[in-house]
Amino acid sequence: MSDLLAQLNPAQAQAAAHFRGPALVLAGAGSGKTRTLIYRIAHLIQEHGVAPHQILAVTFTNKAAAEMRERAAKLVEGADELWMSTFHSAGVRILRAYGEHVGLKRGFVIYDDDDQLDLLKEIIGALPGAGPDTNPRYLRAIIDRAKSNLWSPDDLLRLGEEWISGMRKDVAAEGYRRYQSRLRAANAIDFSDLLVETVRLFRTVPEVLEKIQNRAVFIHIDEYQDTNRAQYEFARLLASRDRNVLVVGDPDQSIYRFRGADIQNILDFQNDYPDAKVYRLEHNYRSTAAVLEAANKLIVNNSERLEKVLRPVKEEGGPVRFYRAPDHRAEADFVAMHVTRGRAEGVALKDIAVLYRTNAQSRVVEESLRRAGIPARIVGGVGFYDRREIKDLLAYTRLAINPSDDVALRRIIGRPKRGIGDTALAKLSEWAQQHGTSVLEACRNAETILERGAAKATEFHALMNSLSEAVEMYSPQGFLKFALEVTGYEDMLRAEKDSENLSRLENLEELIVAAEEWARENEGGTVADFLDDAALLSSVDDARVKRENGNADVPEDAVTLMTLHNAKGLEFPIVFIVGVEEGLLPSKNSLTEPGGLEEERRLMYVGITRAMDQLYLTAAENRQTFGKTVSSEESRFLSEIEGLYQEVNQYGEVLGERRASRGTWRSFNPGSTATQSKPATAASATEAGAYRGGERVSHPKFGEGQVLAVSGFGDKQQVVVNFPSAGTKTLLTKFANLTRL
Ligand code: ATP
Ligand code: MG
């Protein structure tokens, strides 16, 4: 066996040594699927002499792709020639080169969710059968889902019944049709189209397909369980000539069904390729036995699944802990306290993740962490590229590249104000519609369209003209600086120097820095290339996430906050899953949808299996939703793993343990289960005279504060105290001179 494969276990090594023909690696979480995939690529190059530029690997995020390349580079030469990307990035690249075969003009732009929404709002305004209650978001979801199934508006009309409940099917189909023609008129495509159009291209232009096939002789797909029909078709067509396709996945981790992911794709792989070799990996290297046992026990409750074996390699480890807080604030404080405690014991913050079901849950956690002086990185939510000022400057860039981009024009024509009002804009738009042209073109002809204020519109046209010329002349960063200046955007922000505007200016500067860095990595890259890459950065990829409120750069060492969906494929030594409650996890909506509960259970499974060493589950008895406090029940998923976790109080002291074997609640401190009380047995580092979490103390210099965590004994005892006036301090109690209050 080669040295390379010696770093794998025998089952992994077999899969990694797979050479030609289709293969499926089917295995549970943390079993080394991604690792095996990387070694397989290295093995192809090293042992079989395959050229790196003939290898494609498709991952779930751009970040994952970059990491995979880095890891491959450590194993073999030539990794920078590998084609590693997401489905979407691959689509852009292909359509940029060959899009004209499917009617896309050079310089087409990519619309994001917000752009889609802006366009749909406009369309709904004139859509027969639609009314003020027609929800553009809902229509957007329908269109995206149709596209992920490769459905045309006609297909939607014929087949869409099952998942259109909120509006009439014919109205949705007509909305889709109009949306599509408006997209084309604006020379724009949306995210889903990146795949739909690539598939169309593959189907209709065999020569192009063949060219791409020469670049993708060996195809790899990670997280195959979450592919949708369009991605499936993309892979199938690409692999149709050489049939060297290796996919890895875990049906128990399929969590994107709501976006059209089809678990059937992985289950059908063997039907599609009857000669496919199937490899199974049965050892989990990631999690302790205690964590893995909980995960395994949970997932067997799903009925639609393939049985799998997954055994731990690691030892038992500490128990899974569960804390039920009186409310969501106390729940977040629990997280902050235990993070602080871990930090005091030497845990790096980047090794800790807090996972939740919905983005809205991040706010309280973030606040508690901030009070405790712990930096946090929020993945998703409002990412850097979602900020208004960033989108504005990029919209100017888009319009400069593609004068037909009416959505971009509407976004920025009034920022800064130029005296072109709503009425004028409506007239210009109407004229553009009638003449089958863009609003910008209408601006050029404003003299004949507007009675008043035509000069303002022609001025705007001239401004955009100069920007269009600049696109060709400048580097990306040069262009952005130029645009900020000539559009008056910078002046607008400087005119009123409040903290919000200052922070927007800082963000814009950050974008220019990002463009500079990008240009360094992409020699000869144009403004348009930069724009593509910026458009493709999903919030998960967002490398420049800042704190939600304020602009302090998040240091390297920060706790990661993200949704369970975004955590897929990742791992952290310490994981908190918050909000393990009925109505949240499983979510309320899931319970009324067929298969919804099982999808939520898979999501919980994904969450649990992110933990390497320590897993905390938390829930709140009361929670604020939509401004009302409602009581909340523990999630059914907790009862499904009964016996495999310990319930603790807010200080992490054991309250009791549910033992599956006895089926009863066993309390370590009979007679005292109230969360606030101290257990009779010293289950944690508490001792007579020692400080306890939650206690109030006073320090001669820092003033009053609250003990967040205690560790060690006797002379070595340390306390972590949060002083409102001085922040969080870790002190040796022996020298700290604290007074109890
Ligand atoms: P997921 O289903 O969550 O995507 P996965 O199956 O892709 O998980 P990996 O992320 O590849 O699993 O591996 C999980 C962890 O186990 C990683 O830290 C990896 O380095 C480690 N690991 C996997 N196989 C081995 C091995 N043979 N020896 C040592 N460590 C391993
Ligand atoms: Mg993986």
From TrEMBL:
It catalyses: Couples ATP hydrolysis with the unwinding of duplex DNA by translocating in the 3'-5' direction; ATP + H2O = ADP + phosphate + H(+). It is an enzyme of class 5 (isomerase). Its EC number is 5.6.2.4. One of its GO terms (biological process) is recombinational repair. CDD domains: DEXQc_UvrD, SF1_C_UvrD. Residues 289-569 form the UvrD-like helicase C-terminal domain. GO terms for molecular function: 3'-5' DNA helicase activity; ATP binding; DNA binding; hydrolase activity. GO terms for cellular component: cytosol; DNA helicase complex. Residues 664-679 have a biased composition (Polar residues). ATP binds at A27, G28, A29, G30, S31, G32, K33, T34. SUPFAM superfamilies: P-loop containing nucleoside triphosphate hydrolases. The keyword Hydrolase applies. Belongs to the helicase family. UvrD subfamily. PANTHER family: ATP-DEPENDENT DNA HELICASE SRS2 (PTHR11070:SF2), UVRD / RECB / PCRA DNA HELICASE FAMILY MEMBER (PTHR11070). This is DNA 3'-5' helicase.
